[in-house]
Amino acid sequence: MAQTTNTNEILQFASFTSYVEPSFWHKLSQLKLDIDKLEEKVRLIWGKYSNYTSNTSLKPSVFVDYSAYNDQFEEGNLQLPIKGQLLNLNTLEDFKSCDKTKLLNDYGQTVWEHITSGKVFENPTLLVSFLLLTHADLKKYHFYYWFAFPAVKSVPTTYIKKPQNISEVFSQHQLSLLEKAVQDVEDWKLYSAFLLDVDSENVCLQLLREIKTKLGHYVGFCDPSLSPEYPGWPLRNLLALLAYHFPELIGMEVNIICLRLSLSKGIRTANASMVLSVKLPPLTELFESGEDTVKWIGWERNDRGNFGPRLADLASSMNPLKLVETSVDLNLKLMKWRLVPDLDLECLKQLRCLLLGAGTLGCSVARLLLAWGVGKITLVDNGRVSYSNPVRQSLFTYKDSLYKGQGSHKAEAAADALKLINPHINANGVNLSIPMPGHVIGELLQNGKENPQALEARKSFEQLQQLIETHDTVFLLMDSRESRWLPTLLSAFSKKLVINAALGFDTYLVMRHGLQGEEPNEGPELGCYFCNDVTAPGDSQRDRTLDQKCTVTRPGVSGIASGLAVELMVATLQHPLGGKAPAIAEDERSPLGTVPHSIRGFLSQWQQISVTSHKFDRCIACSDTVLKEFEVRNFEFLVDVFNTPNYLEDLTGLTALKQETNSDEVWELSDSDMSDKDEGI
Asked: Are 292 and 278 in contact (CB under 8 A)?
């Protein structure tokens, strides 16, 4: 390499342009919501670039996609790795106001350490890297971002010989030898920068680390630029490397080969490569006056050609259904950031909820289950939407009451409405009448013939039993007391969590039924809806006026009760013991707080109390006596319950208990009377 005269023509470089695949932003959204949350930590990522192309108008490009977050670089055909750092800031204000110059200079020092320590000689890919500053607005799916490709500042490298195509410098024989050498390379990561020894008979491609022992005729690099005038961005730091480690080259001619490859019939060719000669500046010019650290440049220009960030608007390009799917649980995941880090959202996503009743309570409960991200909702009802329903039952509209002149089936209309709200919800409606005590069905066989009413009741029972067995939580949201009895029995038999909500005019009751697991609970087991009753349910609709047949409540009561019912279920499932959680146990709390047994509200007094009651050993719905009788006799047992008014009371001993109570009251009165007479009062 000979001493030459400076032509004073400054070498310019083709800067990188970033291309971000949408999959990169989807992965960032997931990491932000589930892992990073409010933490603004630096994350190591991968990009890729290539010195292969057939499109002469293509700019030097760095691509990032979902694989950028892998621990190891995902090898691709004809691609080179570029390691980067991602810093995602929580607010747009922080993104705008952060000191970009300091950020780049701080990151650039890492590159400079790689250069000065000599690590680059062993791993040439360390010469190029990138910094990605982002802000993710996950409500709008707007991603603000700005790439920087760090390069040493103020390196006034000058030309000695302007760029020439390799065919103007190399003979055809030398070019053929180069292409053969290129063909033999298996791992281009080791040759992203390299040495090239050339003479009339030989062309030898060598690793960059060989530069420590001798200088080749050429120092080369894999050039992503296709410009006939400007070499690619990686050359900037390669020249700084030479200036630092080989001060004897200062002011000397250095020959550079910009290796640009293409494929021709499966063979790598170097016909598009470029050769140039440069003069290295003094090393002191790498540093700014009075500073002992190198300054860095490299922030990317935006689409308008200015230094500034870009915006990726995924909402405008995403499939609306996909956008709903990724956005629906945003609020839930945000809860985990600060408020409830231990919240288990996956158990709610997998939950299967059965709602018995699709009226005022059922509609409100279903909407709230959607908000909690519950995956499957099945609604059961036998009614149709009437003209009075839509104003109180939030899933119905006026059109539902017009359907075929008789109104849509409530359960099916409610399920359809849920799908309109969230197309990804697994919602189904089942039109079903639940058999009830006090509603006589007759015997299965009457006069030697099958009884249609009894057969229909058995079919409904079997369908209800199947529904309960295939769901995890059962909501009892019906109008009457007797309609809750069979679901309570079947849920207790199948060990399902039951949430019960009942309304009065200005009162409400919300409770969870006690759940017995495989092992006995510690302490008394909690009771069910019927455990406080000493009478079996009967036909509550018989001989009733219109205002007695309809559930007449203050409009706000149902909303309060529905909200409490859903929140009680969620809090129960988040408790370590699930449905077996004790009531109001301060030492064993759900992440959402205590888990009461029942909540009673009195709107006229603006009061609400939590009440705990234990399982009643003579309960007509969940006692061991009833469960064993059902296990043995199954539907035959239910026939007796439906047809015989006092059957449950006789079976559980309530009849005897009431007789004993009445007898004790009479006996106490008689004893008192006799005592008064004996004492002469």
From this structure: no
Confidence (pLDDT) at 392: 94
43 and 154 inside one domain: yes
Tell whether 299 and 177 lie within a shared domain. yes
Question: Does 195 reside within a domain?
Answer: yes
pLDDT at site 117: 94
259 and 369 in a single domain? The answer is: no
User: Of 597, 621, 645, at which residue does a domain stop?
Assistant: 621
CA trace torsion 507, 359, 371, 592 (10° rounding): 30
Indicate the Cα dihedral angle 447, 450, 454, 459, nearest 10°: 170
Ranges under pLDDT 50 in the chain? 1-6, 666-681
pLDDT attached to residue 267: 79
Task: Kindly state whether residues 301 and 423 are assigned to the same domain.
Answer: no
Residue 2, domain member (yes or no): no
- Rounded Cα distance, 597 and 587, in Å: 16
> Which pLDDT tens digit goes with each residue over 645-670?
899 999 999 988 878 766 555 444 44
108 & 23 share domain: yes
Contact 536, 620 (CB under 8 A): yes
Closest Cα partner for 579 from 371, 332, 351?
351
Both 275 and 233 in a single domain?
yes
Structural domain contains residue 523 = yes
Number of compact structural domains in the chain: 2
Could you give the C-alpha distances from 255 to 31, 231, 297, in angstroms and in order? 46, 13, 25
Is 124 in contact with 192 (CB distance < 8 Å)? yes
Co-location of 334 and 480 in the same domain: yes
From the list 284, 292, 485, 470, the residue with the least C-alpha distance to 378 is 470
What gap in Å lies between CA 366 and CA 374, rounded to an integer? 9
Cα–Cα distance, 340 to 285 (Å, whole number): 55
Q: Coil, strand or helix: which one is 436? A: coil
In a 10 Å sphere around its CB, with 0-12 CB exposed, 13-18 middle and 19+ buried, how is residue 45 labelled? buried
What six digits make up the tokens of 240?
A: 């700084």
Q: Which helix (H) or strand (E) holds 152?
A: strand 142-152
- Cα Rg of the chain (Å, integer): 39
Q: Are 368 and 562 in contact (CB under 8 A)?
A: yes
Ordered DSSP codes for 85-111: EEEEESSHHHHHHS-HHHHHHHHHHHH
The CATH number given to whatever domain includes residue 176 is: 3.40.140.70
Determine the structural domain holding residue 62 and report its residue range.
17-314
Reported pTM: 0.77
End-to-end CA distance of the chain: 137
Question: Which amino acids are annotated catalytic?
Answer: 550
275-to-176, 221, 419 alpha-carbon distances in Å:
16, 11, 64
Q: Are residues 279 and 425 in the same domain?
A: no
3-state SS of 118-136?
Answer: CHHHHCHHHHCEEEEEEEE
Give domain status of residue 547, yes or no.
Answer: yes
Q: Which stretches does DSSP call E strand in 248-326? A: 253-259, 262-264, 267-269, 274-279, 296-299, 310-313
